[in-house]
Amino acid sequence: GAVVSQHPSWVICKSGTSVKIECRSLDFQATTMFWYRQFPKQSLMLMATSNEGSKATYEQGVEKDKFLINHASLTLSTLTVTSAHPEDSSFYICSASHRGTGGGGYGYTFGSGTRLTVV
Amino acid sequence: SQKIEQNSEALNIQEGKTATLTCNYTNYSPAYLQWYRQDPGRGPVFLLLIRENEKEKRKERLKVTFDTTLKQSLFHITASQPADSATYLCALVRRDDKIIFGKGTRLHILP
Predict the structure, then answer these.
(1) Taking CB atoms and an 8 Å cutoff, what residues of chain B touch A97?
(2) pLDDT over 80 (residue A26)
């Protein structure tokens, strides 16, 4: 089945530094990937849509200069949190869409998530 | 703006019984609706999808219904097992393929 690998699974960084999170589709090509953020006991909030070979589309309220997204190939998208602050600490998750077989329909595969802690 | 609500934050069900989770949405007519399972510290795992012209979809012990008049979906797990304990997310898929998630229902299957 379709697999999305996300790395690292957790990271601790100092305030003011930048952190890069990678999202790879291992056995399918993903022209579109999505990046989400999830706070404890909250729903996943879409941050941006990453399009291969073009600029990402950000949701309202998400700072594009702070959350840099690069989708350089059909299997890799990266999210860089620049000048991280403690309030950026969260669970970041990527996903990619594919013509899956689960449930007989068009499924989305999610990465396992990255727990970012800014100290 | 579109809203999606899962009416129970947590639900305790005795093992062997049927667990029923509810998802209601407003201000939109989605092309389809999905259900995911999420374990602590992990990304969501896709379970089932149901389209707007479908009333019911089944997969093994799982069943999803979709009532576009009531703007509601029900998710059932029959013969529930402790391993079914997790958070279950309802997701509305917009026609631009973006997903709006509910907050989820934490299901506890009691042995």
Answers:
(1) 97
(2) yes
Distance CA A50, CA A71 (A): 6
Q: Enumerate the residues of chain A whose CB falls inside 8 A of the CB of residue B36.
A: 110
Which helix (H) or strand (E) segment is B3 a member of? strand B3-6
The Cα of B7 is separated from the nearest Cα of chain A by a number of Å equal to: 13
d(C-alpha B84, C-alpha B37), whole Å:
9
Q: Which two tokens stand for residue A110?
A: 């999610």
Name all contacts of B65-70 with Cβ < 8 Å and 24+ positions apart. B66/B33, B68/B29, B70/B24
Q: What is the mean pLDDT of chain B?
A: 91
Q: Which of A44, A85, A31, A114 is nearest to B38 (CA)?
A: A44
In sequence order, the 6+-apart residues with CB closer than 8 A to the CB of A3 are A25, A26, A27, A109
Residues A57-105: pLDDT tens digits? 999 999 999 999 998 888 999 999 999 999 999 999 999 876 544 333 4
- Sort out which chain A residues have CB atoms less than 8 A from B75's CB and list them: none
Omega of the bond leading into A8 within 30 degrees of 0 (cis): yes
Residue contact B103–A108, C-beta within 8 A: no
Contacts of A119 (CB under 8 A, 6+ apart): A12, A13, A14, A15, A86
